[in-house]
Write a structure and sequence with these properties.
alpha/beta
Length: 745
């Protein structure tokens, strides 16, 4: 039965209560002659030379179901000129406007039916950002005028169904026409093989904001990350790629703005072609594009690849009560997944909406964006936030989905690094190990296992064996390799490495949600005191645990990912969900490099990464076989108990805190660039998570006649190898909570 209020809302009439907040669209606008026909491709705004050599810009917008589209041009004083686009080709409205030059700001007003019950939310009072805008000028605030519905309607149950007629143009950013004048002929992409990669996840602003070597006016920007002082740290560390937290233009959520906070991480995209303007030092009317490109060139020149963390699963327009900024007002039904009740959005992301990737125009938007960042902005790969949401067909996750199929055959995209966050929050969304061979994945099974091992919470060592050796139980199918696993202990989301050993529970009070936000499944251990302490013993134990975690990560088969600042001992005070903390809590504290307590951790990290690069047995391109490859019975991988005996089936199931892993450098599959066999040193790694020292008998023949200690995490100073020689078949004492790496001699 349809209520009277619903009937009035369907008809666009106000409910019985008074207090309507609507008014006709008004403003300082000037009429303009019709645009020339132009072309429907490429989509977006492209400056070029038109008929008769006239300079101008071609505008093209897909708006399926729309009744009319008006291009809105803005001058320096904010005055609006409207140009009606009359050409329509395959649902693309287009036109060439003479005299529109780079730097000109613009947006769209799209006319159509208002029927939220059917998913139709056209509202020409709202200025809309071009989904293909390559630069955005202005800040996103969220006053009532930017909502397509009357946000404060008295009957909140029907608020989203009453159209708001107020003009949003004064309150929203505009797209900017950009000139394509870059020549990438002098750029040399590093093209680091996956197996040789070490990823460093960082935030453009957070990494550079407090760096003393970067000029103050460049801190927090793309230019700051391109500065020699920033690149020097990355080169010294030895990482091969930076994975940038979202740099697509994003907006802040209303609930954060109301609390005086901002979306710091940036997982709230609204412009998939535009570098986030707030990270630009040079300007926001197109200059941010060139600044981003110069940053990429500088990193490439240092041998460092650039991977973008991208958020194509949802946008900043949230659900039916969210603002109307772009896609919602262009064609809500065409861009978003809707429920059977089309007023509501299907939400597989926890952010209010989900892009409908099965729709051809949405798939085109995403793939056009990806190709743009590769071919015109120079990036080397992507990490896809909540990638399972992109792999859904109509409802279920489908590894034969249109998105994955298009990526697999695209001649540009299939050549770059592709990393999946292999889950979303919907039913069946957890897909670790299920993505096809072209993809690598964030391996949260690795994270959880390593955390549990070092807090001595594993029932046995079976899981640890799989994670150390490349997670073959997850990835040894379909031609996948060990580098399908991106190994990590921490990420931007959760505790920092230092907080992981300093806090038992989260401390997110600063986020303004009464500590309800953020996960409670931290698998952390505070080493005997919650938070910062003056207890010298606890502090020393924490530093040892950090060395253990970093050493484990960098010795494991797969692709290691570090989080910026973990090598310095960065803390967030126990906040495990600092997405809204744009301040010193989240920014890197570079003074830690000069702190005698923390400098050794950086030195160890540098040495471990260099060791990994130097020894191919530590970054194998194929899974271990576990079989003997020679008459002496030596296998490429072997596991040992503390007694020095090879592990039996029963040993894997028995409670244990100690594990020995033998890596043979004699039997590495594949050949080098000249076709020669790859031969390396062999190593024995001993990991002991117990709280008391243990004896460990070093394996003798055929494994070794002697060993040399390369890494010993029980020592505070780790800037050089201990150079300790040990005989095989002898028992050594492994200190409590220690990793030993021994080279076979």
């Amino acid at each position: 039965m349809t209520s009277a209020a619903e009937q009035r809302a369907r008809a666009g009439e106000p409910p019985a209560q008074s207090g309507t907040a609507t008014s006709p669209v008004r403003g300082a606008r000037r009429a303009a002659p019709p645009a020339w026909p132009g072309t429907p491709t490429p989509l977006g705004a492209r400056f070029r030379t038109g008929p008769d050599g006239v300079a101008g810009t071609n505008f093209a917008l897909w708006a399926g179901g729309a009744e009319a589209v008006r291009l809105c041009l803005f001058d320096e004083r904010g005055r609006e000129t409207q140009v009606r686009l009359t050409e329509l080709t395959h649902e693309i409205w287009h036109g060439f406007v003479p005299g529109v030059l780079p730097g000109r700001r613009y947006g769209y007003r799209v006319e159509g039916r208002w029927d939220p019950w059917a998913g139709a939310r056209w509202n020409p009072a709202k200025l809309l950002l071009d989904p293909y805008a390559r630069a955005v000028d202005g800040e996103f605030a969220l006053p009532p005028e930017v909502y397509g519905h009357v946000r404060d309607w008295p009957e909140q149950a029907y608020a989203d169904t009453v159209r708001d007629e107020r003009d949003s143009a004064p309150f929203v950013p505009k797209g900017v026409v950009v000139h394509d004048d870059d020549d990438w002929s002098d750029d040399r992409r590093p093209k680091t093989p996956w197996a040789d990669s070490v990823i460093y996840e960082l935030h453009v602003k957070g990494f550079t904001k407090l760096h003393p070597g970067i000029p103050e006016e460049l801190r927090g920007t793309y230019a700051g990350l391109a500065h020699p002082a920033a690149i020097e740290h990355l080169v010294k560390l030895g990482v091969t790629a930076v994975e940038l937290l979202p740099v697509h233009q994003f907006a802040h959520e209303d609930h954060l703005l109301r609390r005086g906070l901002k979306n710091y991480w940036g997982y709230n995209s609204i412009g998939y072609f535009a570098p986030h303007a707030a990270y630009a030092a040079s300007g926001t009317t197109g200059q941010q594009v060139g600044e981003f490109k110069r940053m990429v060139r500088a990193l490439h020149a240092a041998g460092i690849e650039v991977i973008l963390d991208v958020v194509y699963n949802h946008t900043a327009e949230a659900g039916e009560l969210g603002p109307t900024l772009s896609l919602k007002g262009i064609d809500n039904r065409g861009y978003y997944r809707l429920q059977s009740d089309a007023r509501r959005y299907a939400d597989y992301t926890g952010c209010g909406n989900t892009l409908h990737v099965v729709q051809p125009q949405v798939l085109r938007l995403i793939t056009d964006s990806l190709r743009y960042w590769v071919t015109e902005m120079g990036v080397d790969g992507f990490r896809f936030d909540l990638a399972a949401a992109l792999a859904r067909s109509m409802h279920d996750v489908d590894m034969l989905s249109p998105f994955l199929a298009v990526i697999a055959q695209d001649p540009v995209l299939r050549r770059v690094k592709l990393i999946a966050e292999p889950w979303d929050i919907g039913s069946g969304g957890y897909q670790v190990g299920a993505f096809p061979p072209l993809w690598t994945e964030w391996n949260d099974r690795y994270r959880d296992t390593v955390r549990d091992f070092w807090r001595h919470a594993l029932p046995d060592v079976r899981e640890m064996g799989y994670r150390l050796s490349g997670s073959s139980d997850l990835y040894a199918w379909g031609g996948r390799r060990p580098y399908a696993s991106v190994n990590f202990v921490t990420a931007h989301d959760g505790f920092t490495l230092r907080d992981l050993v300093s806090y038992h529970g989260k401390h997110n009070e600063a986020n303004g949600e009464d500590n309800r936000d953020g996960t409670d499944d931290n698998r952390s251990w505070n080493c005997g005191a919650e938070g910062e302490t003056d207890d010298a013993g606890v502090r020393a134990l924490r530093r040892r645990q950090l060395r253990n975690l970093l050493t484990t990560l960098l010795l494991s088969t797969g692709v290691p990912m570090l989080v910026a600042g973990d090598e310095l001992g960065r803390t967030q005070g126990g906040n495990n969900n600092a997405y809204c903390q744009d301040g010193e809590l989240s920014w890197l504290d570079w003074s830690l490099l000069d702190d005698p307590d923390w400098r050794p951790l950086f030195d160890l990290t540098c040495r471990l990464i260099a060791l990994r690069h130097r020894h191919p047995v530590l970054h194998r391109r194929a899974f271990f076989s576990g079989r003997a490859h020679s008459a002496d019975g030596l296998r490429d991988l072997a596991w040992f108990t503390a007694r020095g005996a090879e592990m039996t089936e029963g040993d894997w199931y028995a409670p244990a805190a100690t594990l020995g892993m033998y890596l043979s450098g004699r039997d590495i599959p594949g050949r080098d660039e000249r076709g020669a066999a790859v031969v390396d040193d062999s190593f024995l790694a001993v990991l002991h998570a117990g709280h008391e020292p243990t004896g460990f008998t070093l394996p003798g023949a055929p494994w070794a006649t002697g060993y040399e200690v390369v890494v010993d995490t029980s020592g505070e100073e780790q800037h050089r190898a201990p150079d300790t020689a040990l005989d095989a078949d002898t028992e050594i004492t492994v200190p409590a909570r220690t990793v030993l790496l021994l080279r076979v001699v």
